[in-house]
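Extended Data, record Calpain catalytic domain-containing protein
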Amino acid sequence: GWAVWGWAVLTGDHCLRLRFDEKTKHWKRSTFEAVKSKGSTDGRFIPTNEEFSMDDTWNLILNYMESGSFVAASGGKDMGKNIDAGGGANAGGLNGEQLNDSAGLVGTHAYSILDARELGLIPGISIGGGLLGQTRLIRLRNPWGKYEWKGPWSDGSKEWDENPIIKMRLRPKDEDDGTFWMPWDQFEAAGFHNIDICDRTTTKDLR
């Protein structure tokens, strides 16, 4: 099922999806609407005709994360096919999921987005639009609690030692717990083409 369907039913809050369009290279926004029929609840996505660049989408994620919204990401069965992460081939998962062992990603599978940071490589600089040597990192979690991203900024990768300021700020844990950081500039290329959001504009009930 869809993460937004569960969120809408459980919270009653506004839910939406950003879907990457391969032709325009923009993210298109749709609103999720739960529909009751014959004693059951279904759902549909209604396009809003809004489109966002990668930069705009990044800023949207930052804003929703700051407001305490639920955010998740998913892709198709070809997750990781455009990423050169060190060899390996696709193999089927136990429940029919498509596993990309070289990238450490699972196709047709929802990941929680736990955090998003824009950090400067220079001390004291950590805001703005990617200027002055800043890097954008997004933290995701595989709900399996294992099987993680193997590309840049993954657990134990060289990028952490090459960027000690960022390592000090984020304090990454090299553990097989399903959580990992990855660079925003490889998020779409890795196959994440859907971003689902439950807009928690009131955050008191989350505390």
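Summary. Residues 85-89, 123-131, 203-207 have pLDDT under 50 and may be disordered.
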